Structures are given as C-alpha cells and as structure tokens.
C-alpha cells in the first residue's frame, strides 16, 4: 500500500514537471512566433486558427440554428477560401461554436480574414450574438 502511494506521488510530481516543461516550451514557441511575425524572418507561411462562440436567442429548434450557422459559414467560405465549420454545441439549439483555420502568405492576409469574419458576424447581429471570438496566428 505504501509503495503504491509513493509511486502515485512520484507520477504526480513527474507529471507536474512535464506540464511545466510543456508550458515553458509553448511560451518560448509563442515568443519566437511573435518575433518572426514582427521581423518577417524566415517565415514561409502564416497559419490562422480560432474559434467563435455564438448565442442564437431567436432560434427555437435545431433546424433554425443550423440554417443560421450554415448561412454564416457559407458566406465566410465564399468571401475567403478558409476552412470553417460548426465544432461545438451541435445538440444545443441556442448555442453554436465555430472553428476556423486558414493559411496565408502574408500576415496582412491573416488580418484581412479576421476583419472579414468579424464583419460577417456583425451582419448577422439580428439573429445571433458573438459571445467570444479567439484566434491566433502561427508562423511556420
């Protein structure tokens, strides 16, 4: 019994160190990405990804919700050829979660896509409210 407890404590301590190392690695990678973005050094492409949380107060069924979400995603796809899809809250009729991703040759293109997504969501302000939008640009 004592051996199992000591083993479990060792794994928890090792896991904590591993998580701390992963977080440090992530912070270093984000700092490097930001430096590359600002300097434009050795950047082959920019990858934009993010998520949007929506609230649809006037939706009274899953069918209503899916029509609105489908309309939003189609309009964004037509405006910019990016990957966007409903990724969360598929079974809730007044909530929606969209995920999107795009690759760009220039950072300005990524900014243009974010502006287009925000403008498109503003066009739908009568049927949905944006709860949260989170995005990130990574250099490769």
Task: Describe the model.
By secondary structure, the chain is α+β, with helices and mostly antiparallel strands. It has two domains: 1-42; 46-139, Alpha-Beta Plaits (2-Layer Sandwich), CATH 3.30.70.1120. The protein is 52% helix and 26% strand. It is built from three helices and four strands. It has helices at residues 2-39, 62-79, 107-123, and strands spanning 46-55, 83-88, 95-104, 129-139. Strands 2-3-1-4 form a four-stranded antiparallel sheet. β2 (83-88) and β3 (95-104) form a beta hairpin. The longest helix is centred in the first third of the chain and has 38 residues, at 2-39. The radius of gyration is 20 Å and the shape is elongated. The N and C termini lie far apart (49 Å).
Set down the secondary structure blueprint.
Elements: H1 2-39, E1 46-55, H2 62-79, E2 83-88, E3 95-104, H3 107-123, E4 129-139
Antiparallel strand pairs: 1-3, 1-4, 2-3
Helix pairs in contact: 2-3
Please sum up the structure shown.
The protein is α+β, with helices and mostly antiparallel strands.
- Main sheet overview: 4 strands, antiparallel
By helix and strand content, what is the structural category?
A: alpha+beta
CATH topology of the largest domain: Alpha-Beta Plaits
Number of domains in the coordinates? 2
Any idea what the CATH superfamily of the largest domain is called?
A: TT1725-like
Q: How many β-strand stretches?
A: 4
Which architecture of the largest domain does the CATH hierarchy give at level 2?
2-Layer Sandwich
Across the major sheet, the strand order is 2-3-1-4
Task: Give the ordered list of helices and strands.
Answer: HEHEEHE
Please work out how many helical segments DSSP would assign: 3
CATH class category name of the largest domain = Alpha Beta
- Overall pLDDT level: 79
The coarse overall form would be elongated
Helicity, in percent? 40-55%
**Nearest-angstrom radius of gyration?**
20 Å
């Amino acid at each position: 019994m004592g051996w199992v407890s000591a083993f479990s404590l060792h794994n928890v301590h090792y896991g904590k160190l591993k998580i701390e190392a992963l977080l440090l690695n992530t912070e270093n990678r984000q700092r490097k990405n930001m430096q590359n973005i600002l300097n434009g050094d050795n950047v082959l492409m920019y990858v934009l990804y993010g998520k949007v949380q929506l609230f649809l107060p006037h939706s009274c069924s899953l069918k209503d919700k899916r029509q609105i979400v489908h309309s939003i995603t189609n309009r964004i796809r037509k405006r910019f050829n990016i990957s966007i899809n409903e990724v969360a809250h598929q079974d809730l009729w007044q909530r929606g979660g969209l995920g999107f991703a795009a690759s760009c040759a220039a950072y300005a293109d990524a900014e243009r896509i974010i502006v287009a997504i925000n403008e498109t969501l503003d066009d739908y302000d009568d049927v949905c409210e944006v709860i949260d939008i989170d995005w990130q640009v990574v250099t490769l």
